[in-house]
Amino acid sequence: MFGSNPQTQTFLVGVSGDGGSRGVALGTVEAGIDAFKILECICPPPCPPATGDVNNDGFLDGLDIQRFSIAMLGGGSPSEVCAGDFNTSHALDIGDVPGFVAALFGP
Ligand SMILES: [Ca+2]
Ligand SMILES: [Ca+2]
């Protein structure tokens, strides 16, 4: 993984093998990359400002607490993450809780 901005992170995946015909590595396999070219970078669209309406029903109320909690545990859709990402970390994490609580109970 390269870069520090999630919008520009790149994942490089490679597969190496021992060349055996049985499909089972019998020893240590070493591999390296001599040259590579980035052909395409697919970045998620930027999130609009977080609203806290995680279940996207047009209201900010107690029903969003459950979806926020589930999304924070990794079970959220991209739109749910965007709706609750108050600290703009591109994920729902503990840093979003103060913003979510303030939005939920604020004026
Ligand atoms: Ca809602
Ligand atoms: Ca966040």
Q: Total number of β-strand segments?
A: 0
Strand content: under 5%
What's the main sheet like?
none
Question: What best-fitting shape do the alpha-carbon axes yield?
Answer: elongated
Number of helices: 3
Helix and strand sequence: HHH
- What structural class do the secondary elements suggest? mainly alpha
Unreliable stretches (pLDDT < 50, length at least 5) are 1-5
Radius of gyration: 21 Å
End-to-end Cα distance:
41 Å
Bound molecules: calcium ion
Description:
This protein is mainly α and 107 residues long. It has a domain at 63-105. The chain has three helices and no strands. The protein is elongated. The protein binds calcium ion (2 copies). Residues 53, 55, 57, 59-61, 63-64 line the site of one calcium ion (CA).
Short description:
The protein has 107 residues and is mostly helical. The protein is 27% helix and 0% strand. One calcium ion binds next to loops.
Keywords:
107 residues; mainly alpha; elongated; disordered N terminus; binds calcium ion
